[in-house]
C-alpha cells in the first residue's frame, strides 16, 4: 500500500471511528478537519463518561496502551512520497494546527537546555536545508519553521531569547565557543552569537576542517559549541547550471555532521550534537514537470515568496516577527519571476520551505 493510499484510508476511517496513528505525525497535516488527542488513556476515560460525546474526527497519537484493541491502528511511514499539492494546501490552510501540534523551531532552545548531563553540547546551524533532503538519514525528525522561511527569522527562532548560550551558562556550561562561515561584523551573526567574545570565543572559518581542528584544542568540561555553516541557500540564489542538490545535502550529513560526531568520539567526550536549518528551499521545477510557479504581479514587492509589510491580497498569510510584519505566499505562488541563474526560492509556506530537519545525536 502506498503512502497516498494510507492517507486516503485514514480520511475514510476517521469518519467512522477514532484512529490511533503510529509513525510520522507530520503527515497528519494532510488530513482535513481532525482533532488530535495525544493522551489515549485520557481520551478513553472521557468518552466512557455518561455524557454526550461530540461528533468529531479523532486521531490518537502517543504510546499504545491497554486500549489499543479498541480502535484501529494505522502505521504512517515518513519515507514514502508526500503528495505535495495536498500537503502544501493543508499546511497553508491549517497553519495554526501545525504550530500547535508539530515540533517547531521556537521549541528548540528549551529542548536543548533541558538535556545537559554531558560534557559538551554542540549545535550545528545550516543555512538552507529541507527536511526532505535528510529524510532518509538516521536520527532526523521534522521541524516546522514557525514564521516566514527566511534566514533572519529561522535562525533567531532557533537561538531563542534568551539565547541558548545564556540558558546553558546558567546551568553550568560556563565555556562557549563559536565557529562561523559568515563575517563576525554581520548584524545577524552578532545576534546569533550574542555573548560570544569575538576575540576569545569566536572564529571565522572557510572550511569545516578548521572547526574540527579547533575542537581538538577544547577542554571537555561543560562546554557549549555553536557552529554556523553554509547549506543550500547560496547555490539556490546563484549557480551556473542546475545545482546537484541531493549530492550537496548528502555531503553535509556524511562529511560534516558525521565528521563532527567522529571528532567528538575521538576526543572521548560525552556530548549531545544537534543539527538543524533556518529554512528549506523550494526549487525551480524541472523542464517537463507538471507543476510550475504561478506569478502574482505586484509592483510594490521586490522579493519572490514573501514581502515585508501587510498586504491584503489572496494566497497570503500574515506574520509579525521580531518587530516586523510579513506577508507570506502559499505554494506555488511568486510575487516576482526568478532569474536565469536562480534555482530556488524561500520565504513562503510549503513542505519544501517550512519543514526542516532536526537531528539529535548522543555521543558517549
What does this molecule look like?
There is one protein chain. The protein has 364 residues and is of the alpha/beta class. It has two domains: 3-81, no CATH class; 102-282 and 351-363, Alkaline Phosphatase, subunit A (3-Layer(aba) Sandwich), CATH 3.40.720.10. It is built from 13 helices and 18 strands. The strands form five sheets. Strands 6-18-10-5-9-7-8 form a seven-stranded mixed sheet. α10 (208-216) packs parallel to α12 (245-267). The radius of gyration is 22 Å and the shape is globular. The protein starts with a helix and ends with a strand. The model has no long low-confidence stretch (mean pLDDT 92).
Proportion in β-strands: 15-25%
CATH homology superfamily name of the largest domain:
Alkaline Phosphatase, subunit A
The number of helical elements comes to 13
CATH topology title of the largest domain: Alkaline Phosphatase, subunit A
**Count of strand segments:** 18
State the major sheet: 7 strands, mixed
* Percent helix: 25-40%
Main-sheet strand order equals 6-18-10-5-9-7-8
Distance between the termini: 39 Å
Task: Please mark out the parts with pLDDT under 50 across 5 or more consecutive residues, or reply none.
Answer: none
Given helix and strand content, the structural type is alpha/beta
Q: Label the CATH architecture of the largest domain.
A: 3-Layer(aba) Sandwich
Shape: globular
Radius of gyration: 22 Å
Quote the average pLDDT: 92
Number of domains: 2
CATH class of the largest domain: Alpha Beta
What keywords describe this structure?
alpha/beta; 364 residues; globular; single chain; seven-stranded mixed beta sheet; 13 helices; 2 domains; 23% strand; Alkaline Phosphatase, subunit A; four-stranded parallel beta sheet
Amino acid at each position: 500500500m502506498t503512502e497516498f493510499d494510507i492517507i486516503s484510508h485514514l480520511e475514510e476511517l476517521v469518519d467512522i471511528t477514532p484512529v490511533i496513528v503510529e509513525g510520522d505525525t507530520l503527515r497528519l497535516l494532510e488530513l482535513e478537519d481532525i482533532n488530535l488527542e495525544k493522551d489515549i488513556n485520557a481520551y478513553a476515560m472521557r468518552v466512557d463518561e455518561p455524557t454526550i460525546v461530540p461528533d468529531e474526527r479523532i486521531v490518537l497519537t502517543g504510546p499504545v496502551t491497554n486500549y489499543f484493541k479498541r480502535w484501529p491502528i494505522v502505521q504512517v511511514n515518513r519515507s514514502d512520497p508526500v503528495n505535495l499539492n495536498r500537503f502544501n494546501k493543508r499546511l497553508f490552510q491549517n497553519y495554526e494546527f501545525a504550530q500547535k501540534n508539530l515540533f517547531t523551531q521556537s521549541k528548540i532552545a528549551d529542548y536543548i537546555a533541558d538535556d545537559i548531563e554531558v560534557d559538551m553540547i554542540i549545535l550545528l546551524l545550516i543555512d538552507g536545508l529541507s527536511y526532505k533532503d535528510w529524510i532518509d538519514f538516521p536520527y532526523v525528525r521534522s521541524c516546522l519553521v514557525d514564521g516566514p522561511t527566511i534566514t533572519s527569522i529561522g535562525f533567531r527562532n532557533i537561538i531563542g531569547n534568551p539565547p541558548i548560550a545564556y540558558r546553558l551558562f546558567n546551568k553550568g556550561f560556563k565555556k562557549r565557543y563559536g565557529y562561523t562561515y559568515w563575517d563576525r561584523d554581520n548584524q545577524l551573526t552578532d545576534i546569533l552569537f550574542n555573548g560570544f567574545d569575538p576575540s576569545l570565543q569566536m572564529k571565522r572559518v572557510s572550511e569545516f576542517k578548521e572547526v574540527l581542528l579547533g575542537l581538538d584544542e577544547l577542554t571537555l568540561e561543560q562546554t557549549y559549541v555553536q557552529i554556523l555553516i553554509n547549506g543550500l541557500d547560496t547555490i539556490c540564489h546563484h549557480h551556473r547550471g542546475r545545482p546537484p542538490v541531493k549530492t550537496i545535502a548528502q555531503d553535509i550529513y556524511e562529511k560534516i555532521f558525521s565528521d563532527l560526531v567522529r571528532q567528538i568520539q575521538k576526543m572521548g567526550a560525552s556530548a549531545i550534537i544537534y543539527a538543524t536549518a533556518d529554512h528549506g528551499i523550494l526549487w525551480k521545477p524541472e523542464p517537463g514537470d507538471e507543476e510550475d510557479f504561478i506569478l502574482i504581479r505586484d509592483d510594490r514587492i521586490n522579493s519572490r515568496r514573501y514581502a515585508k509589510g501587510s498586504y491584503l491580497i489572496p494566497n497570503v498569510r500574515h506574520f509579525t516577527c521580531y518587530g516586523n510584519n510579513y506577508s507570506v505566499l502559499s505554494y506555488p505562488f511568486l510575487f516576482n519571476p526568478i532569474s536565469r541563474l536562480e534555482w530556488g526560492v524561500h520565504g513562503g509556506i510549503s513542505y519544501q520551505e517550512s519543514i526542516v530537519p532536526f537531528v539529535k545525536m548522543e555521543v558517549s
